[in-house]
Protein: Cytochrome c oxidase subunit 3
Amino acid sequence: MAHQAHAYHMVDPSPWPLTGATAALLMTSGLAIWFHFHSLLLLYLGLTLLLLTMIQWWRDVIREGTFQGHHTPPVQKGLRYGMILFITSEVFFFLGFFWAFYHSSLAPTPELGGCWPPTGINPLDPFEVPLLNTAVLLASGVTVTWAHHSLMEGNRKEAIQALTLTIILGVYFTSLQAMEYHEASFTIADGIYEHILRRH
Structure:
């Protein structure tokens, strides 16, 4: 690559956006085929391609930032702004679900039976698995913060321990969610209550 007279990183041509888009197409098509024909082959193919794309793309980003020195201060600033915009989009995504929940629960329509939760729905006890899930989620926030501070202090061993604990808590949280969804007396297809609850 030719020498640059500026501090910005001009990205080299990469196949990873194309393979990522192909993986997304295969995954969504695979989900539709799984729903209608109960075949997981295309979904697994899409997931495999997505994982391979993520590994290769992250490898390239790490290589560019560490070994090639392309992540200059202006580039780092742009990466930070990108992460801030991503987190902001996630906040608004969840805000939409909370808005739908409050709209439906504070002014239930006649289609819902005029009450919340809708007639015939047995809601989950918030002081059982949902409370445990909240505690696990908060604990994972503590461990990832611990990992961040360990990295900032150059303590690699503690950072690895904290990240390992965070991953374990994440797997535990996901398994609790799966158990809760499996044991619930309603499904996502039963109405607005289930749509909102399943996405929180």
Q: What stands out?
A: Residues 75 and 119 are 54 Å apart (CA to CA).
